Task: structure prediction
Amino acid sequence: MQTIRKDDAASKDFGNWIEAHLASAASTFEAQVAIARRIGAHVTGAESADFAFWTPELLESRVPEGDVFLEVLTPDGPLDLRTAHQELTFTATRIPMERCEAFSVVSVTGVTPGNRDRIGSFYRLAWRDSAGAWHHILDPMAASLPFGAFAPAELYDVDGMLAARGDAAYWTGLAQSDKEAVIKLGPPVSIQQVHVPTATAGGTLAALTATYERLAERVRRGADLEPSERLFAGYDAVQLLPVEPTTVYEAGPAFWQEETTEHGIVANLIRPDTTNWGYDVVIAGMAGVNPVLLETGRPDELVDFAAALHNFPRPKKLILDVVFGHSDNQGTGVLNSYWFAGPNMYGQNMNYRHPTVRALMLEMQRRKVNFGADGVRVDGAQDFKWWDAEAETLRHDDEYLQSMSDIVQEVAGVKYRPWFVFEDGRPWPQEDWELSSTYRAVIENQHDDDVFQWGPLTFAHNTPFLYGFWLSKWWRIREILNHGSNWISGCANHDTLRRGTQVDTKLNVNTRLGGTRMEILDKAYDNPAIQTLTYAAFPGVPMDFLNASARASWGFIRNQDDKYGVKVVAEEAISLKWQVDEYSYSQPQSFPRLKSMGFETRESLARFMEFLPALVEVTDYDLNVIASLLNEVDPVLDGPRPVTVGVLKEIARAWMDDMHEYCNVARHHTQLSPAQTRFNHQLREFRRARPWLRDNLGPRDRFDYRRPVDGTVLFTSLRHGPDGEQVFMVAHMEGGPTPDFDPLRLPIEGLEGFGWHVALRTPPIGSEFVGGPLSLHDSMALVYTRQAG
Result:
């Protein structure tokens, strides 16, 4: 084993470099931006690296420089990241660090940089208090966190990982003749939104990469795609739900548990296995990848996935979803207090006005996107706020949002600025936000003309399975037609589908969508008429959520909660009515944990779930009272007896874990409709062949609903392309069937004349229909095209 030593000269140079920037920069923030590039661990040679931590808490506590060390942890035996549980002894080597104002830095030799085939040295900062007790500070800027953000980080050869990427030709092909020029990437034609853990049976980035590589090969060979393959085909971009490290189990166990013995640090290591929908971040580790998503434990898997998309026969773009608008409360356990500006409904506000926090968060973003992303989706942009003490009000930090868009990335030697899309519903959470939000605040405030936002039908609380939905949204639809060129469109995403499963089943549900609640919900969010409207009529960039397209289940999936886990499940309990029927529950692979606890049938679980939400509300979430009352129910509830607070928490955990497995798309492949998946694929190809449909409606375009309504909401759209092509759409959005009519005879200006051809037919309209009268039923649509004579 090599000897780990401090490189005194390099350490001094590192400290002097920081001091020079602090002294000479035009502003404190500019100095922090430059310094942020070197914060964390950076490999400098085969066995050497620089380490830097931002440690204002040590200054505040007056910890002497001589009590601050870099602690390098070296396992005494082989470490296998593919093993669920292992115990290893680590040798700790402490290297004195240099202090440069609020930074602690050191250059070290004898360390092992990690790569695809080798696990690197683990590290953290260690400091000693006046009583001789040791404390640790973790690296929030780490590139590799095999055991999560609350464990020591791994020194990783990031430059080597990025240099070996398999899509360099894609990036150099984007560059213009001037290699030093910064190119600006634009929007894709369509987007598929994907949650990695439920997208494939494997649930990892490696498994998802294999899916796209197999699909690419079949596309190259011209194979007839199966329904499960068509789910992924035809999109121009893939947007991953956040892939950052998330919260950990509130009540344990921790993934890295240690005790100090005479032999060294004995660590009890658990492979991270939390289930999470991705948005419960702790900010620390944002430059890395959630280890739960890594089959191999190597961050290379994200680079490999980017390469699989970029090397597709028709390259696909990668869009990363980043969450910098808040931190879960657990973040206070891994970041110092200077990072935070006080509590909010999600956990903690970030301290955007602090120059170091601001610089480090932007640096986290830069490092993450350098994995190879073409675009960035910013979650909850309305939450980026700061307190204006002089005016005594909260203000939106639009300057920070602009800074996010301005970051220059570099991949394979190509400098570029990614395409940006913001989710921003300001003035949310103001009570009238659904009425008062314009969904254009960021678009109008940024200097780029291709900045996008989520549009009003893409935001939460859209319920297309309720009668009257489409005409109630008519005013928003008119806004989409006139202003939607820079909006993301479509009704089905991770948020709208989740909200749909929380809707009271006693509301006025559109029973024409299906015979059961499951059928109604599935068709509402994978609806042929809505898809036709989105792809053949609406401007903007359409986006589909994989779980919706697969007619798979979805919900608020998070198994880390201890304190509020029962309350979360009580809020989600109504989804049992929407997403789980007796047959699906009875399947051997469905809900095994809950069945083992005594909920052997859906009916027995549903009865328990009727009582739980009511008791949560009436007791103001007093778990002891809830447990006591559940024990008194007559006849006795199924499930474990007696019900205790501990049992309630076990049921909540079982629900989350079972639902996570139930939502996996691979479980729904055999139920996919060949006709529906083929039609959706054809729609995507239709849109891609007509990029001009992204533009707002022009003076000759027409969009309306048939009047009088007469019990049927029939939307019509006539669009004109720059090459003279016309696209006409008629879609039955809701209501009773129409009498036979010829759509081409509707009184729409510009529709007159001959030359129209049927381009697309929603199922169940067959290919034998080539024109003439027909009766349209709920969710049916037609698309016609005509070339200018």
